[in-house]
Amino acid sequence: MTQKISITNYIPADHSELLRLLLVLHSSYFDENAPKQFQELRQEKSMKSSYENYLTGIEKNKDDTWKILVAKTLSGKIAGFIIGSISEDEELVLGNIGRLEDWFVEPEFRKEGTGLVLYNELEKWFKSKGCKQVTSGTWEGNDLSISAHKKAGFFISEITFSKKI
Ligand SMILES: CC(C)(COP(=O)(O)OP(=O)(O)OC[C@H]1O[C@@H](n2cnc3c(N)ncnc32)[C@H](O)[C@@H]1OP(=O)(O)O)[C@@H](O)C(=O)NCCC(=O)NCCS
């Protein structure tokens, strides 16, 4: 069933729910879907403290180079979120670069356009900050992510190789 969703800026009251969703994305979704060899290379010592530190770091960021947008239902439940950051490569003509860091919609809210609305809002923010390109990444085989990126206008650019030694 399609529910009314609104996109808002992250507020500190969203912290614990956002942390939970970050862990769902990087823990259960990753464990269920990423290739086993890749999981081994990305295994973290403590997922919870890694993402607590990540989120706290974004909250403390004062130079407006990070953005978290959340998609909320009318009752205030977080249905999804997107996180972006901005960096500068002085050597490039299009060197003001937006990075799509994390993008997640809860399974029950997927395929209703929420993911694209979140991305389009983030892209508006990137443009307002002078970004001329956006980069993002996922692992090979994350078809949901690949099709959503293509729908949002991305093309596949680089390929990364990994090997355990
Ligand atoms: C990627 C994600 C955020 C998209 O959220 P969403 O709310 O489902 O996205 P939308 O409904 O706006 O759909 C956007 C497009 O993604 C693609 N898509 C979404 N669900 C899909 C599915 N089940 N199968 C194939 N393509 C799908 C479609 O191209 C879709 O556009 P369309 O409906 O017009 O065909 C969501 O699927 C998700 O959380 N995936 C798991 C986490 C993940 O992989 N995140 C990205 C990490 S880099």
Polypeptide structure, described:
The protein has a 5-stranded mixed sheet, sandwiched between helices. β3 (78-88) and β4 (96-105) form a beta hairpin. The longest helix is centred in the first third of the chain and has 19 residues, at 15-33. The chain has helices at residues 15-33, 36-42, 47-60, 114-128, 143-151; strands at residues 5-9, 66-73, 78-88, 96-105, 133-135. The chain has 165 residues and is α+β, with helices and mostly antiparallel strands. The protein is globular, with a radius of gyration of 16 Å. The protein has one domain: Aminopeptidase. The chain starts with a strand and ends in a 14-residue tail after the last helix. It has 5 helices and 5 strands, in the order βαααβββαβα. Bound molecules: coenzyme A. Coenzyme A binds at residues 25, 29, 103-105, 110-116, 138, 142, 144-145, 147-148, 151.
Keywords:
alpha+beta; 5 strands; Aminopeptidase; binds coenzyme A; 165 residues; 22% strand; 39% helix
Blueprint of the fold:
Layout: E1 5-9, H1 15-33, H2 36-42, H3 47-60, E2 66-73, E3 78-88, E4 96-105, H4 114-128, E5 133-135, H5 143-151
Parallel strand pairs: 4-5
Antiparallel strand pairs: 1-2, 2-3, 3-4
This protein binds coenzyme A.
Coenzyme A binds next to helix 1, strand 4, helix 4 and helix 5.
State the separation between the terminal residues, measured CA to CA. 48 Å
CATH topology (fold) name: Aminopeptidase
Q: Please give the order of strands in the largest beta sheet.
A: 1-2-3-4-5
CATH architecture verdict: 3-Layer(aba) Sandwich
Integer count of domains: 1
